[in-house]
Task: inverse folding
């Protein structure tokens, strides 16, 4: 299929086809990729989606369901379908995908769906439902090709081909013993290429990366990325093979984790859906704003305590907002670089120490540079060299503090087990605001009054 | 291999082994995965790295080179190696990896390496060097398995196996005609499963996603993610097959793009390396800070123009910093959500319109909520109900403006072809600072003076 952009015409076409007969509708739907229909679903009413899924053949319908974003609730379609059709669709789904969708339903509804499935699918999905969603167990599929290390080439090839019927992909093959204990990995290429009398035992690679079911998905993503592998086996504590995670699952995890990082660093709750309702947005953001308001009062109380200075030098009122604001900007820069470094790899003590030192230096230099500009403005615009000196010192000091806190706060939070992206920016803004007011007012009270 | 954490012991072990004889060193190195040695390299001096690469067998050495982060300059090792060994290593590298490394060298040095390679590798790398690094062409490998649609099963299987010698992965197979024009994709599974007399022609899937060599890597990542495919063929304008891009390449692209997004939204140049020098950091961040200083002067000039109000009501000086700061925070929230939405998918006009409307509403509600708190403080702490009213109105107004600008500025920038992450936060802070001072001072000058 040509990769093309969906537009209003496509939506219109399907909407009109929905008025006509089922055969014509199915013909039109067949021109689209399942993922495109999933995108069009975002703009169709619930009844239309249910009608489309019910007239599509089960394998195509299951692809569409699988491609739907969980934000758009594929489970709502599934639960309203004719039970026979629903069973067909669920059995076509990869069991990890089916699990994610079914997990969104009430326990009664889950039961209703699982009772209709064949024994193996139902038991696989029940197992997967027992893992937490954001762990390796919640991410893996149990559709995994295995060969016994006691098989010879033709037996193995037969087994692989037999199992491949069920699967999209069968390239990475895991070798297990009679007790399903993982012995290593073997590539299909090597099986096909080997002589007829070779045993899998002789072909297997016994050094390989694997994870246990409770490993965090971020760690799985890091391993897959670090080792450049296409799939990773999931095992229990006795190395019994439970399933595998493929790289395409990891891509979604990474986008999700990255979205969370960007939101958290900006003071938005990680649970806020990007295209969620305004009610959700208020619920996710208002608490952070109220905390920020508290810290803003703290900063403002500093201004109040220098009431005499402000009255005597009303011009400080404008300049100190510049110094506080610039501190916030510089701190945000240092924070972004540090948070991103932490999220890509763990830093050693020495690396952490050098990061803070670097940001201190960068803050001081950037502070002095901007301080110089402000000094020149005070000199030529206000004709007040002492004011210039006060502002230069305050700007340099505040950006130095911005650099130190921007780098050290996320590192400290990480060490004590708090997500550095969440709380960092509030703590740091508090520092740069407080010092942004304190430094110019205090230096001014010493040098100018 | 067990997935384990590297620590100082590992580094120490290798450092002491470097003092001993080569055989012992090689034995110790063999206990590590290539990607682990690449990580240890980050802490070793240049001579040590060159020594290790020169004593490792070429296939292992090339894996280490391939796993090195480009920030740590694998090309510096390559260029100093004995030419014979270097040629062996480069020929072992996937040609897309070799290209990325060689691209970092001077033209003379590139020539020196390419002249020693066999004709095919040299010509592949020369072709790849001609594409821009962040395009599909720059990302793809030319190691691609093909079968002719005129082949029968055994011929195809033979061809696949023959080509697979050169490759890590040979699962997705592309079917071409006599002129190397891409006809479709065929799965190895289907070839193996089919009867002996079946033609590839009958097995090929003619609907598939493909990209041209100049498509941006972000778009390639989006396609691979959208269609959940493991590799994507790269073609020229006549559908002639040029190569393929695999999903593991895309993971790195995504991490890179996400790092850029987080940095840009925080006012850091996207070129700044996370673990770069302080000089680079100053160069990357100072320009943004100076621009910010300009906009801060703009905001401060508003305070100056209300000199009389500030003198008559010095208390405003503290409160207006709260209102400006809260506007900045609320705008950052709206900005993060909108920028992330844009980077994950294009918004239709209608979606864009509804996004701005939603953020307007969220801003107004959050503004009124925080405004109410400030009103109560003014009422009970300052015993000044009119001041409370002024602050309530100003807070609500500024957070409403924050919501509108936070959502609309990135959408507008995107439409006019400017990267929304780059300039948005500066423009938006300018709005929230200016209105954060203007609104309370102006309303106060009307109601309180």
Result:
């Amino acid at each position: 299929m040509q990769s093309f952009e969906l537009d209003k015409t496509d939506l219109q076409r399907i909407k009109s086809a929905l008025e006509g007969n089922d055969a014509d509708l199915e013909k039109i739907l067949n021109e689209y990729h399942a993922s495109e229909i999933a995108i069009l679903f975002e703009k169709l009413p619930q009844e239309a989606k249910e009608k489309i899924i019910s007239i599509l053949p089960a394998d195509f319908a299951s692809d569409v369901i699988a491609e739907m974003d969980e934000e758009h609730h594929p489970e709502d379609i599934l639960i309203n379908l004719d039970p026979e059709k629903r069973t067909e669709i669920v059995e076509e789904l990869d069991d990890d995908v089916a699990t994610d969708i079914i997990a969104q339903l009430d326990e009664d509804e889950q039961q209703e769906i699982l009772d209709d499935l064949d024994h193996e699918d139902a038991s696989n999905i029940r197992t997967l439902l027992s893992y937490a969603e954001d762990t390796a167990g919640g991410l893996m599929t149990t559709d995994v090709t295995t060969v016994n290390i006691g098989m010879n080439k033709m037996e193995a090839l037969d087994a692989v081909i037999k199992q491949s019927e069920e699967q999209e992909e069968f390239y990475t093959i895991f070798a297990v013993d009679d007790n399903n204990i993982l012995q290593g990995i073997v590539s299909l290429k090597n099986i096909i290429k080997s002589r007829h009398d070779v045993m899998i035992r002789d072909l297997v690679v016994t050094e390989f990366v694997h994870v246990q079911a409770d490993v965090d998905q971020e760690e799985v993503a890091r391993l897959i990325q670090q080792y450049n592998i296409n799939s990773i086996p999931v095992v229990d504590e006795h190395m019994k093979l439970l399933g595998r995670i493929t790289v395409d699952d990891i891509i979604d995890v990474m986008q999700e984790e990255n979205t969370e990082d960007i939101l958290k660093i900006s003071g938005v709750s990680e649970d806020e859906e990007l295209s969620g309702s305004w009610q959700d947005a208020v619920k996710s953001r208002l608490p952070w704003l109220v905390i920020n308001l508290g810290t803003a009062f703290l900063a403002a109380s500093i201004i109040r305590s220098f009431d005499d200075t402000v009255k005597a030098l009303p011009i400080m009122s404008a300049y100190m907002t510049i110094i506080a604001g610039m501190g916030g900007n510089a701190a945000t820069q240092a924070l972004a670089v540090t948070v991103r470094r932490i999220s890509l790899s763990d830093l050693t003590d020495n690396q952490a120490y050098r990061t803070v030192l670097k940001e201190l230096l960068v803050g001081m230099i950037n502070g002095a540079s901007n301080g110089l500009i402000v000094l020149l403005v005070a000199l030529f615009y206000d004709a007040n060299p002492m004011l210039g000196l006060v502002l230069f010192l305050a700007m340099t000091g505040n950006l130095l503090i911005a650099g130190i806190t921007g780098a050290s706060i996320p590192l400290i939070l990480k060490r004590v087990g708090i997500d550095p992206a969440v709380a960092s920016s509030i703590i740091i803004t508090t520092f740069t605001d407080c010092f942004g007011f304190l430094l110019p007012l205090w230096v001014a009270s010493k040098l100018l009054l």
In short: Residues 135 and 217 of chain B are 5 Å apart (CA to CA). The first strand of chain B starts at residue 146 and ends at 148. The mean pLDDT of chain B is 84. Chain B touches chain A through 106 residues (CB under 8 Å).
